Amino acid sequence: MIRQCAWCLRLMNSVGERTSLLPVPKIYEATHGICQVCGMLWLEGVSEPEGRTLAVIQAEDGQHVQCKGEGHYPSL
After folding, report:
1. Domain ranges of the chain
2. 52: pLDDT confidence band, cut at 50, 70 and 90?
């Protein structure tokens, strides 16, 4: 079975390690999840100090760019 990261579109193995150096076009028949690299970026984003927001976006070339901005999370 083919596994592909839904964030960076790189192929990955069953434990989330990237197996392709570059993103590939979305494979609709693949199982989609999150690779270890994208997972760590996501965890860093949600663990930012309160009062700061973090957006993690994917550039056209598949590289991740982190953009930090000021702001507050809504009260829950």
Report:
1. 3-70
2. low
